[in-house]
């Protein structure tokens, strides 16, 4: 039987300080669908599985990170109801001045 890679999702409870209660938030670390499977509904199936897992873990929210330039992903997440929250910033170690 031949298998073909279609995509994956990895998710887990958003980390919090060990002295705080659970965040109640499932963090989606990576969501990827191979180009041949885009537009097939696979991404919806992966998100639904993450939703099921989130409910089993007692979560009430999702969170995720998305590249600012990934317009397709941002449009999909916005369609699901995701809203911007916080901001991540990066800098090259060679270019930072203290």
Describe the structure.
This protein is α+β, with helices and mostly antiparallel strands. It is built from 2 helices and 3 strands. A 3-stranded mixed β-sheet has the order 1-2-3, with helices on one face. Helix 1 links the parallel strand 2 (25-33) and strand 3 (61-64). The longest helix is centred in the middle third of the chain and has 15 residues, at 42-56. It is globular and about 55 Å long. The mean pLDDT is 87.
Task: Explain briefly what this protein structure is.
The protein has 98 residues and is of the alpha+beta class. 26% of the residues lie in helices and 20% in strands.
Short descriptors:
98 residues; alpha+beta; 3-stranded mixed beta sheet; 2 helices; globular
Task: Outline the secondary-structure elements.
Blueprint: E1 7-13, E2 25-33, H1 42-56, E3 61-64, H2 71-80
Parallel strand pairs: 2-3
Antiparallel strand pairs: 1-2
How would you spell out the order of helices and strands?
Answer: EEHEH
- Give helix % range: 25-40%
Given the C-alpha coordinates, what overall shape results? globular
* Rg computed from alpha carbons, rounded to a whole number of angstroms: 16 Å
Topology, number of strands = 3
Gap from first CA to last CA:
57 Å
Overall average residue pLDDT: 87
Q: Can you count the helices?
A: 2
Largest sheet: 3 strands, mixed
Within the largest sheet, what's the order of strands? 1-2-3
Strand portion, in percent?
15-25%
Give the structural class.
Answer: alpha+beta
- Any low-confidence stretches, pLDDT <50, length ≥5? none
């Amino acid at each position: 039987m031949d298998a073909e890679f279609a995509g994956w999702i990895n998710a887990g409870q958003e980390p919090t300080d060990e002295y705080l209660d659970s965040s109640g938030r499932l963090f989606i670390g990576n969501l990827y669908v191979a180009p041949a499977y885009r537009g097939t509904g696979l991404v919806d199936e992966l998100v639904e599985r993450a939703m099921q897992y989130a409910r089993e873990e007692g979560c009430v929210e999702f969170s995720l990170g998305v590249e600012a330039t990934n317009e397709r992903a941002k449009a999909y997440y916005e369609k699901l109801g995701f809203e911007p929250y916080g901001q991540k910033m990066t800098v090259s170690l060679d270019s930072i001045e203290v």
